[in-house]
Structures
1.
Amino acid sequence: MVNLSVIVPVYKVPYEYLRQCLDSLAKIELRDIEIIMVDDGSPDRCGEICDEYSDRDRRFVAIHRENGGVSAARNEGLRAARGEWITFVDADDWVEPESIGKLVDMAFELKPDILFFAGFLNKGPEQREGRFRFAERKFFEPKELYELMLRAMTIYALPKESEEILPLDGVCGKMYRVSLLKENNIVFPEGIPVSEDGLFLLHALKKAERVIYIGECAYHYRFNAEGAMNRFRPHADIEQGRYLTKLHEYVLGTGDDSLENTYYLRVLVSLRHCMEQKYFHPKNTEGYIKRRREFLRLINREPYRTALKLKRLYRLSKTLFLRTLLIRLRLPGLLFLLLRAKRLAARRIKINAKGKVYK
């Protein structure tokens, strides 16, 4: 019997990060677990490293596949999983071995459909502990589950809970009952390279009856300034459009008309990503006039046009409020300068006391 399946998608990860991740999983003292490493066609030696661990420890399973993206890799792991519980670990992150063991014991004791837990944010040598704003052991009532779903939908739109380190809508920092996922055919949407884990969580929350939070810091999230949400994405508008289509399908599937307004709050976040990752990204070599024209064309299309007409923008985070206001006033030039100032400030923050730049 396998108690826990740990799914690790692997693709072009720095070798020292991958080894730190797998070493931390190898130190988990539980024997009835499996660590499924899905090599998503990585063109480097990551696949060889996965084979090395599978040869050394019978709990490690290496799967090699053609590159299909992180959703396809996680779905491959889901199909192979034999555990009663599943958790996901990104290959450049790592875990606290003893804490994972405690959480498995709690999962069997409390029998939740989804178990949330806490973690750490690691920026270079800096580490911050973060917990969700719940009691150390929190059982969610049906109404609270609905509020949790709203928070997952509006991530980055509303003011942030200061002590929350692991993204609420992220796939990591949670354990899922396998039967919940397989009986309801809950998988990661393929062909959507952004926010796919948020959609996965929303579908799981929709079907879950028993959700529990435990304030055990078990996961280390490694901040990457060049990560997926910060790098230049020349097709960000298309990617966000695909995500929003799937999110709207989810909202319509709930039969809850009140979620429509929440959906449009999330549309504003997607618009922010389009601005930062494409139209006003420093690696975009197109002329400013052309970028400005394309951006104005985007905001005149649905669903962005309706989202920009939302009332009660004071509910938004300060950052998103200011950017939404500048867009409403058709002042993309000021927005461009604002983003440049933000990047310069972020670069200064990355320089530590020794003058090294965090990667």
2.
Amino acid sequence: MVRKFGIRRPALGLTQRRRLIDRKFRQNWRSYLFQSALTMLALLIILLVIDVVLQAAIVVAIASTAFIVFVAPHSNAASPRRVVGGHIVSVIVGTFFSMAFLMPELGDLVSDSRSVRDLFAVLSVGLSMLFMAVTDSEHPPAAGTALGLVVTGWTPSAVLFVVLGTVTLSVIHLLLRPHLKNLL
């Protein structure tokens, strides 16, 4: 027992120190390595095929999706309906709020005020969440897609990146799902 601030606490034993590494890793280390490498390969293919440099928020949303698809492949959030559907819902909502900047009535107000852009970004995330829940296509990383489209501006290449990225991840997931394990 160790005393710290007058409270008796057990000293960290060898078994508690080893918990720094997940117990499942020791048993399934091959799956951990395979699925991590698969994530990197899938993202590399997506980035090479699309060959555009996009704003960080959208790339992070797709990278977060890849994490879910390959670390928790049997979870609801990894299903193609939720991966593709969640991002499509977010593209639609993000596009709506991005296009609002092009409206002549709002153009001057938005360009002069950072707070209006921030408000639109927040609304895009909140409404994306709502519409994902209503359409049973909840996919948490997809909220980053809506945010990215509003904060950095809508571009056809960003939308193409999201659509092709999510479809690619879903196809790889469907083909390899029987060989993947939940690592969480």
3.
Amino acid sequence: MRCRSAFNAIYLLLAWLPLFVGCSTLVGHPPQAVRAPNIVVILADDLGSGDLADTTERSLIPTPNLARIAAEGLRFTDAHSPSAVCTPTRYGLLTGRYAWRTHMRQGVLGGRSPALIETTRPTLPSILAAAGYRTSGAGKWHLGLQSSGPTDYSKPLDPGPTSAGFERWWGIPASLDMAPYLYFEDARAVAQPTEKIQGSAQARKGGRGFWRGGAIAPGFRHEQVLPDTAARAVAEIERHHELQPAEPLFLYVALSAPHTPWMPAKRFQTVEGAGVYGQFVAHVDAVVGEILDALDRTGMTDDTLLLFTSDNGAHWTASDRQQFEHRANGNWRGQKADIHEGGHRVPLLVRWPDRIGSPRRGESNDTLIGLTDLLPTLVAAAGIEVPAGAAPDGISFLPTIVAGADGLRESIVHHSLDGMFAFRQGPWKWIEGLGSGGFTAPKRIQPSDGPSGQLYHLEDDPGELNNLATTHAEVAERLQRQLDQVRLREAP
């Protein structure tokens, strides 16, 4: 780890040297630093690695805007969310720390849960804000509000996004199928959830799209949340360009889709190939297009580092795979919530025109990456150091972005909905248990005479079909020891 840190520090210095001009040619003129890049992170909700067109032969959904990002930047094919469900992934992305190190060992938060991010913990927005960034967020929060529950929306929603480093925030408290249904801005509810709404059936079963019944604010419409989030993200870009163009912007756009309820706008309802889900993915792609257009319009594209990813794999069930040829999670086993690859292997696209030159644009990269790596990577891209104690489970992959460096992360921990762990190193993946640990049946299998876990060689067996735990017991034992070491390691 020390060698890797030293390498990253040296590389960061070398990578930023071209951003200083005049030092070797203009005598008497001090070097002038080009300001740090704008940073935009777009996090989809439940989008699978196989949903992007042109990334797998089994994708039947048009995603031209995501294809544009991939063509103008880099596509990472071995990227993973720190959990196979959303709340712990959002915690990991913003803090660089695995959520299972908190009191949250499994599951997700609800719409009235207290804040998960500790108020003293450095976060991606708080670190960037301290370095002069304007920090703004829009969309789905799902990291809890206030210090104890149940959340009282008539009072200030603190702790929350503003205590976690966001100067400006607008969005919804949790998933769009979790009551209460309302918007909140900064630390206040826009309108109180004084009305009630009945639950709705899944679109798979002929309903409008699944959500739970409960409290709702007057005028709140589920189908309007994705368009409203797009409008807010665009407005934040335009506002920044108009009022604060000399300062860098950090914008976090946490989309509520294509998580349920699946409610695509009318213009996408002619998309074929993956039912209502595919139509909603096409809507997500169009929202990405609106953000790209806003960056183009304001002249911010070239000096903006933009990342697109997802909080976990797609909720694409066995019945969906039987009905449609589309493979939302590619050819990987499992789905959202599962410990298998379909649960946590996610799309990751990176575009930075100022730093990713034309010879490398459009490349695919199979470097192992976790979304806990975003904090150290983006902080390094901003030209600042990660504070001591921050991002204990993250490793910067900035050298990979700007120069194609490989092998910075040697291993990674995976985590499922019900708390099942896995440890990946090279092609080997050890799962500490039997079953999926998530939505796919069986969730858990009690070991009998056979192995207690699952061992797969992903290069030879990407579908995780051949459990090698018995024939390669020494590998399973080694990976188990390493997993134990990571869990026991102090990560403040």
